[in-house]
Specification:
The complex is a heterodimer. Chain A is mostly beta strands. Chain A contains no helices and 11 strands. The radius of gyration of chain A is 13 Å and the shape is globular. The chains are: A mainly beta, B mainly beta. Chains A and B meet through β5, β9 and β10 of A and β5 and β10 of B.
């Protein structure tokens, strides 16, 4: 079966750095996406990785290792507004997104 | 641009009632999707469309029907609602299927079936 695993909840301090991990087992791989979802709102796109390595975009970076079935999202200089759920999704061989349950990130002052 | 819009935002149904959720996008996207989101679970694909006049089943299609008569609209129907269909429903659209084509989401419809 297809499976995406990520921690249910994480807590971090304002101004710090946090890494959210995602491991996956899917039938085929056509890229990995990270989305942010604030409570009661729609998911919004953060990043896309299809090749191994690190993609940096401002305070957010995303890393992919296809051989290990592993990705992480790195958030630097955390702000209170970063309190949200972070969703990992893998595009399978049918070009459909398989979604993890999300990681709820709590930022404390 | 409004992006992706959904109506209604909230709805309460009784078991056995029917309803239609409307999704509209103004980005001229070919691909449209309906997902449901339940606590502790990832988004699950109900149905999707790769273009006007086409629809296909996703992971959890039972109890739902869809239509894509116009490119900008994607309708999700519940013919006989059941409590198991209580969920938050999201519509999304994308320019293409693969590559870096991100999906853009609507604000969601919160449906409760009593």
């Amino acid at each position: 079966g297809q499976n995406i695993d990520q921690p249910t909840e994480m807590t971090a301090t304002e101004g710090a750095i946090v890494q959210i991990n995602c491991t996956y087992q899917t039938s085929g791989f056509n890229g990995l996406f990270w989305y942010q979802q604030h409570a009661g709102e729609a998911p919004t796109f953060l990043s896309y990785n299809v090749l191994d390595g690190l993609e940096e975009k401002g305070r957010f970076s995303s890393f992919l290792s296809r051989s290990k079935g592993y990705s992480y999202l790195l958030l630097k200089e955390l702000q209170m507004k970063d309190s949200a759920s972070y969703l990992c999704a893998v595009m399978d061989s049918n070009y459909q997104l398989i979604w993890g349950a999300g990681t709820k990130l709590i930022i404390k002052p | 641009n409004a992006g992706v819009t959904q109506t209604p935002k909230f709805r309460v149904l009784k078991t056995g009632q029917s309803m239609t959720l409307l999704c509209a996008q103004d980005m001229n996207h070919e691909y449209m999707y309906w997902y449901r989101q339940d606590p502790g679970m990832g988004l699950r694909l109900i149905h999707y469309s790769v273009g006007e006049g086409t629809t296909a089943k996703g992971e959890v299609p039972d109890g739902y029907n869809v239509s894509r008569l116009k490119k900008q609209n994607f309708l999700l129907g519940l013919e006989s609602a059941a409590p198991s269909q209580t969920s938050v429903y999201f519509c999304a659209s994308s320019e293409g299927a693969g590559g870096p084509h991100e999906q853009f989401f609507g604000p969601g419809t919160r449906l409760t079936v009593l």
